[in-house]
Design a protein that fits this description.
Rossmann fold, alpha/beta, four-stranded parallel sheet, single chain
């Protein structure tokens, strides 16, 4: 699989489904070895299988992006498995505090059950959000990205990036 990313190593968070999965697959198609990181290891393993079935090279890891230790382990896996790290894609994210990665059934059920509220009061979930719920979304979407970037930047500064 030769391409624009041949001999590069990429870490993708949230790669168990959605945009993260599509990104991991595409980077592998372009020749990158990929660390597939997701809080749900079974979903990450599925992405790895898709990549490998198409001739790519990938490894999975369970990562809670809000954890500094998990982000360290993710970056270290890139070095130990593939010899370095060249690129980071942070695609992990949640839309609300009860979001479960890749499980859209509860969201669809909520929309159907609350369709009148959605039509009459768009954004009602945000307006009625409690501080803990809002913090969880910020922790995953903002702080999780910052943690991953910080850990990878430290690795790049130390000279352990790919060649």
């Amino acid at each position: 699989m030769a391409g624009r990313l041949q001999d590069k190593v990429t870490v993708v968070t949230g790669a168990g489904n959605g945009i993260g999965r599509a990104t991991a697959i595409r980077f592998a198609e372009e020749g990158s070895s990929v660390i597939v990181a997701d809080i749900q290891i079974d979903k990450a393993d599925e992405t790895v299988q898709i990549i490998e079935d198409n001739g790519g090279n990938a490894k999975s890891i369970s990562v809670d992006v809000t954890s500094g230790a998990d982000n360290d382990a993710m970056a270290e896996l890139a070095v130990s498995q593939f010899g370095g790290l060249d690129c980071l894609v942070t695609a992990a994210g949640i839309s609300h505090a009860n979001y479960v990665s890749g499980d859209i059934e509860p969201d669809i059920k909520s929309i159907v059950e609350n369709r009148a509220t959605y039509l009459e009061r768009p954004g009602w979930e945000f307006v009625e959000a409690d501080p803990d719920s809002f913090d969880k979304v910020l922790n995953v979407n903002l702080k999780g990205t910052c943690w991953a970037c910080s850990r990878v930047a430290q690795m790049l500064e130390s000279g352990t990036e790919g060649q």
